[in-house]
Structures are given as C-alpha cells and as structure tokens.
Amino acid sequence: MDPFTNDLLQLPRNMIENSMFEEEPDVVDLAKEPCLHPLEPDEVEYEPRGSRLLVRGLGEHEMDEDEEDYESSAKLLGMSFMNRSSGLRNSATGYRPSPDGTCSVPSVRTMAVCVFLIVVAVSIIMVIYLLPRCTFTKEGCHKKNQSMGLIQPLATNGKLFPWAQVRLPTAIMPLRYELNLHPNLTSMTFKGSVTISLQALQATWNIILHSTGHNISRVTFMSAVSSQEKQVEVLEYPFHEQIAIVAPETLLEGHNYTLKIEYSANISSSYYGLYGISYRGESNEKKYFAATQFEPLAARSAFPCFDEPGFKATFIIRIIRDEQYTALSNMPKNSSVIMEDGLVQDEFSESVKMSTYLVAFIVGEMKNLSQDVNGTLVSIYAVPEKIGQVHHALETTVKLLEFYQNYFEIQYPLKKLDGELLLSRSREGFTKMFFGNDDILFSDDPVSLKSLNSCMPGSELLVYASYPGASLLLMLKTYLSEDVFQHAVVFYLHNHSYASIQSDDLWDSFNEHLYVINLTEEVQWVKVNTNMNGYYIVHYEDDDWEALIKQLKTNPYVLSDKDRANLINNIFELAGLGKVSLQRAFDLIDYLGNETYTAPITETLFQTGLIYNLLEKLGYMDLASRVVTRVSKLLRSQIRQQTWTDEGSPCARELRSVLLEFACVHGLENCSATAMTLFDDWVASNGTQR
Questions:
Q1: How far is CA 114 from CA 95, 108, 124, in A?
Q2: Three-class SS of residue 467?
Q3: Among candidate residues 570, 621, 610, the one with its CA nearest the CA of residue 37
Q4: pLDDT score for 474
C-alpha cells in the first residue's frame, strides 16, 4: 500500500514485539511482519495514538461512524513534535534567563574554554587535510582514490601481505598432504610437520594457505626438477588466518612443487580443532585423550592447509603416541613403528580425495567392539570404562550403513568404519565425501524418515527442525514421490562423487525428473501442498478460494485435517500480507461448527487470537469482544462437549485443553466458575481427588 495515496493506514502487526516497550509507536505498518494479521485496508482506518479505529466485517452490525478529524490529529502530533524540538533547542542555548528576566552573558572562563576547543578542532582538521590521502584500516593503508579491492594488508612482521581476500586464490592446488603429529597429552601441546604436494594452475610467486595458532619454525620449498630443499620466508596475516610462502622462483603453470612446514601449537580446550579432554578412570585417576572437530574451519588450527572445501586432496597421516594409547584416523592403519623413549608412530593408509574438514584422528586409551559388514569392518570405540555400553551403538551403525548403501546404491568405499562414544563429535562421518562440499545440503547426522503420529499438521517435520537441508529434501520427496526422488538423488550422487559442486547441480538433477499434471475442465478446485508437507504459503485465485470455501461448508472431510488447517493458516497469513480480505478469511472458518479435529480448531484459535491480542493491546475492547463472539459461536458445540477429565487420546486431550482454555480466558459457558469449583474440591481433598 502506498502511504501517500490513501488516507487509510494499516494496523500494526508487530504487537507482540511492541508489547515489550512502554510506549507504542505512533504509526506502524501492519504488513511488515508476516506472522501477525492486519484487518483489510478497506475495512480499517488507523489514526495516531488517541484517535479511533473502524473495522467492518467482523459482526452483523456496523459500528457508529463518528470519525475524528484526521487533520486535528495530525496537528496534535505536529504540536507534540514541535514542543519536543523546542525543548531541545531551549536546552542547547548558551544564554540563560536570570531571575529578573534578563539574559546573562557567559563568563570569561566559559569563553576561554570555547576558544581553546575551537583552536584544537581547527588544528586537527588541518593536520588531517595535510596528511596523505590514506585511510588506515585493519588491512593496512587504503588510499581514497583506490577501490577497496586494492587494499594491501600488512603481515605481522610489517611487510606487505600479498593477498587481501578472505577466500584463497586458486592459482595453487594441493594434491597430497603428509601430516606428522605428536600430541603431548601431559603438556597439552603438539608438534607437527606437514608436507604438501602442490600443482600450479597458473604462474605465481606466492603460495597462500591457512594457518592459525601455530609457531612456525621452518618452511622449505622444493620444485619437481630440483631435489634440493630451499628455506623460504613465511608471512603471517592472522586477521584472515592466512600465511603466504614467498617462493624463491616463479611457480610455472602445470608444474608440481613440494612445501614442508614445521610448527608447534597448543591443544585446544574448546571442543574445536585438535582438542583435549580429561576424564576419570576406574581408580578415579585423571586421564586424557585428544580428538578433532574440524568442521567447518578448524583444520587450519591443527596443520597449515588449504582449508576450503574446494581444495580436495589425499592425506597420509602419521601420529606419534605413547605406547598405552591408541590412535585412529580416517583410514586403516598401515604400520606401527617403535621409536625411542617408548613412543610409537602409527602410519595410516593414504585417504581418498577429500576436503580438509573431513580429516579426523583421535589419541587416547580406548577399547572397541567390531562387526564385519560386506567387507567393511565396523567398530565402535570407547574409553575402557565404558566399553560395555557400545553394543547398541554398534547394532545401529551396522543398520545405518546397510540402509545408506542400499538407498544410495553406492558401496562404502573404505575397509573400515569407526565410531567413538563420549568423544563429543570427535570425528566426522565419511558419508560427506559422497556429496559435493562447496554447498552442503545434506547433514551427516542420521535423521529418521519415519513420520510422527501427532495431532498437529506438519508436526512430523519437527524431526527436521535442526536440519534445514533435510526439511527441504523431505518437501521435495513428497512433491516428486519417493521413487522419483530417490532416483534423482542417486543420479546426482553418481554424477558428482568426490567432486566440488554447486547447489544448482542438485536442482538440475531434480528438474530432469519433474512432471506436469494436466487438469480437465471438470475439476472444480485444487488443493496445493497436500498435507502441508511444504514450507510455503499458497495463494489461490478468487474463484478458487470461493470453491474451497464452498467445499468446506458442503463436506469438509473431503480434505484431510492437515489440509483444512493448512488452508486456515494460509488464508490468515495472506490476509496479514494484504493479499486477501479479512472477510474472506472469516468466511473460510464459517464451517467450523462441523469440525471435530484438533488441528483446524487449534490453528483457528491461534490466528484469531493474534487479531484479538492486537485489538486488546490498542484498547479496542468492543471490537476484540466481537472477534471472540464470532469464534465462540462457531465452536459453541465443541466447547459444550468437553468434559473436565484427562481421558481420551492425545488428540482428544489436546483439543479439550485448547477449547477449555479459550472458554475460560474469555468467560464463556460458565467455564471459570466450573474450574474454580473443581480446584476448591481438589484443595479440600488434600490433592487426592482426581
């Protein structure tokens, strides 16, 4: 609605948010919040505070139309603003009236202070003007005649850092990491070295990668044509958690190079990156283990790397540990070598090509239970004191592995699958490697596809509330049908295995399996979003709304209770957006006298309750009571059928609860008196009466 072309302003829809403030805004727009509902613009006239509200269509009779003068209200608002403004001006003046009514001149001290401040201000302005045209930021000196893209950041040693972007350049691609780590669980520190095989995709002098929290002691560089290692300079830029290796020669396109970085760091205590945890053993002695959680951006804290999903490479991991500890990683163990001082070095097989955030390892005292599944050894590890509690976890993991392999038609590619208990997300599931990782849509956490048996529409989707990707996939599955959806997902996974993808790749796969439904002229109406499986609102043409309203009045049970609740939800949401009239929304719920299911009644009470709260907050109690009267007439039969017991199914008890609450809150059907009598009887029985 254009506020300058219509004298009628919409009601405020954010009454819940505004209720936390003592003072209401003079004018707010009802259409800004989609969850609360205005009345139809042609049925509502809203003036500033102190004026009145006219609403038509909620009752049988019109209200008296003795409207206030809009111009008078505007003048009152203008006077109020002028009074506030003049008050500010009066308080800001330098002259004050003396008791005899004359104005006193500022003192000499006041004048001197003012002159001093003026001189200081002028001096600062002149210094800034005479300095070079340069704006200093965290990223260095930015000249005003340059674009922000040309900011040159400074490294920790004061030299210019050769890269200013948060995302890494794509001139260099890692091919393989050889990672050597020695976590010390006593001092909670670790030493490491990483050797990265690189390929230059375009000519460059610098290698930019991620690193944070590392004390880098030595960096060497070697080209494929020369076997001689050269020590090179490293520049650190903590603001972007990046380091730059300045190569001793130009890195040529298509050539391979080797970079080796030696460093040390602290083991984290924040359950992020390479972190350590302490626990109590059987004899109450304190024990420690170290584990990893690299998703989304913490691999860079364990070793210098190209820590973005698109930079996939293979990994060879070696871990030095004390003899009493066990070390695990993504891949099976190749060898264990006894070293000096009683230490052991475990080397793991080279991994498949994967992103850095999928790298995982753990060191500590552990025992395990295992089971072979079609050539894959499934193991569940736990600290020795908890090994007796892993049987259920092992059984569940075996079932999930078989389910995923059958559903996706992809065999698990490794020879082992490890899980750890009581390690607080210590490693990531390998499942993510099947999916592209630039735009992650899937969650590793197994989520049941089984619907919940509930009274509320869409409540089966609550399982997915924490996983937006899973919720979206469920919506697509319902729309496409389960078989078509599965075929599209399998097609997508096989085409993009181990690759970096974009979200459009998934949509392209689904689009190939879409179909069109041709409707005949005999079809009187169509209900879209069957059973409210989708997270969207459907707006129908006027004739279609009328056809659906007619159907509800004729035989509402042609539609499921979820579809009926969905229609109620959609039409009131659309009324709040000004897309349909509020009168039409109330016409749709006129069938409620024949409604026996919980979901549509609950949705009606919720939506009309928002309108009631709005009117009550604005002080229009006569109009608010008219809303209650209209709804109570529709639900009078259902309210009278309720008993004051806790019997029946969960849906029946929920329906009883919402109807009796509505009746008692609004003083209907002698509800409050009955409730008080029952409460007094319960108190008199010392809580024994049921």
A1: 14, 10, 16
A2: coil
A3: 610
A4: 82
Structure tokens at 520: 């005949």
Residues 552 and 467 in one domain: no
* Residues 295 and 375 occupy one common structural domain: no
| Tokens linked to 682 | 């319960």
Residue with tokens 């089984």: 450
Number of H helices, E strands in the chain: 16, 24
Q: What is the DSSP string of 39-74?
A: PPGGGEEB-STTS--EE-SSSSSPPP--PPPHHHHH
Last residue of a domain, one of 318, 343, 365: 365
399 in the same domain as 455: no
Measured CA to CA, the distance from residue 508 to residue 492 in angstroms comes to 9
Q: Domain for residue 94, yes or no?
A: no
Q: Cα–Cα distance between 2 and 13 in angstroms, integer? A: 17
Task: Report which DSSP code applies to 282.
Answer: T
Residue bearing tokens 């890494």: 168
What SS3 state is found at 659? Answer: helix
Domains held by the chain: number: 4
Q: Within this chain, do residues 302 and 379 fall inside the same structural domain, yes or no?
A: no
| Cis upstream peptide for 296 (omega within 30°) | yes
Residue 614 located in a structural domain? yes
* pLDDT at residue 186 is higher than 50: yes
Domain limit, last residue, from 365, 389, 410: 365
**What is the rounded CA–CA span in Å between residue 629 and residue 647?**
29
pLDDT interval class at 128 (50, 70, 90): low
359/388 same-domain check:
no
Beta carbons within 8 Å of 364's beta carbon, 6+ residues apart:
185, 287, 288, 289, 290, 291, 325, 326, 383
Tokens of residue 97, six digits? 């009236």
Looking at residue 594, what DSSP letter applies?
G
0.70 cut: is pTM over it?
no
CATH number of the domain where residue 609 is located:
1.25.50.20
pLDDT band at 47 (very low <50, low <70, confident <90, very high): very low
Question: What is the Cα–Cα distance from 414 to 431, expressed in whole angstroms?
Answer: 11
* 596 and 666 fall within a common domain: yes
Give the residue among 209, 305, 206 at the shortest CA–CA distance from 249: 206
Asked, for residue 112, whether it belongs to a domain, the answer is: no
Residue 62: exposure state from Cβ atoms within 10 A (0-12, 13-18, ≥19)? exposed
* Nearest Cα to Cα of residue 582 among 591, 594, 568, 571: 571
Report whether pLDDT(261) > 80. yes
Distance CA 374, CA 363 (A): 28
CA angle centred on 305, ends 300 and 309, rounded to 5°: 85
626 domain-assigned: yes
Q: Are 302 and 292 a contacting pair, CB within 8 Å?
A: yes
CB-CB contact of 361 with 393 (8 Å) = no
652-678 pLDDT per residue, tens: 888 888 898 888 988 887 888 888 888
DSSP character at residue 107: P
- Contact indicator for 401, 378 with CB cutoff of 8 Å: yes
| C-alpha pair distances (Å), 526 with each of 458, 475, 476, 540, 544 | 20, 19, 19, 9, 8
Q: Are 627 and 615 in contact (CB under 8 A)?
A: yes
Tokens of 277: 């945890």
CA separation for the pair 95, 106 (Å, rounded): 7
Residue 85 to residue 385: CA distance in whole angstroms: 73
Cβ atoms of residues 572 and 36 within 8 Å = no
With 50 as the cut, is the pLDDT of residue 649 above it?
yes
List of E strands, 383-472:
416-420
The whole domain housing 380 covers 370-426
